[in-house]
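Go through this:
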Amino acid sequence: MNHWAHQRLLLKVRSGSQAHGLATPESDEDSRGVCVPPKEFLYGLSSFEQWESEGGDHVVFSLQKFVRLALDGNPNIIETLFTRVEDHLFVHPLAQELLERRDMFLSQKVGFKFGRYAIHQLQKIERHHRWLTAEPPTLPKPEDFGAVLGENSPKFPDTASERAFRAAVKHHRAYRAWRKNRNPKRAALEEKYGYDTKHAMHLCRLLKMGCEILENGEVHVFRPDADWLRGVREGGLSYQELLNWVKEMEQRLADSESRSVLPPEPSFDEAEALVVRTTEAYLRLPEGRERRGA
């Protein structure tokens, strides 16, 4: 990690299962950080938004991008702001205001985004469950969709048929890529329980966190329900029980959003002013140890 971003850090925290209190002995050490880029990236023609390690276990965002994502309610960024102090790996004095004013980023948008991330997890679970339990899709042929084979390309009867064919091809390719690139540990979970229980654990965590934020304005990154979530990862819910639970939680999330006392959106002006203050203060620091990160 010799990129300059690590020498210009404002904040660095543990992330992922370690920060959630859900780590296993095999879990990786992940981190997220925030930095102030050099002047040429602020005033010049160069640009910088983030640095990411190979594999994506460690990420450092520019302060500008980090705050833009926070304003948008991005769950990964909100978790970074609310990670417990024990999981702070580095905090620059100039990051104190960002942490002290982190509640400014909480809005109804955050609950919605946590819910949306959860549904993305559910879609992956459902797709893989179909592939595990149903006959694998065969390679689609144009003639199966009413096409007449021409000299150069098939002629479909209408655009709807052509779109259906292309969608089927895309689905088949996704299936083959999944079979080829399956993580062995994830594959073992799917074979044992009929669905990816690790995805399910994160799905449940995201839905619970979304409701907590909307109902109480609280962000519990280190999970008080870690034992229950670990039980989900270990197959504590059948596939149908998981779907039923998700349906109930989606309704709770919608009800919580309608009753939430959080503002519909955070204040852009306040966030922008914080970015300007922090950046200008950082650039006034002398070169050397005063600027160094981790």
Q: What stands out?
A: The mean pLDDT is 90. DSSP finds twelve helices and seven strands in the chain. The beta strands are 9-15, 30-35, 50-52, 58-62, 88-91, 148-149, 154-155.
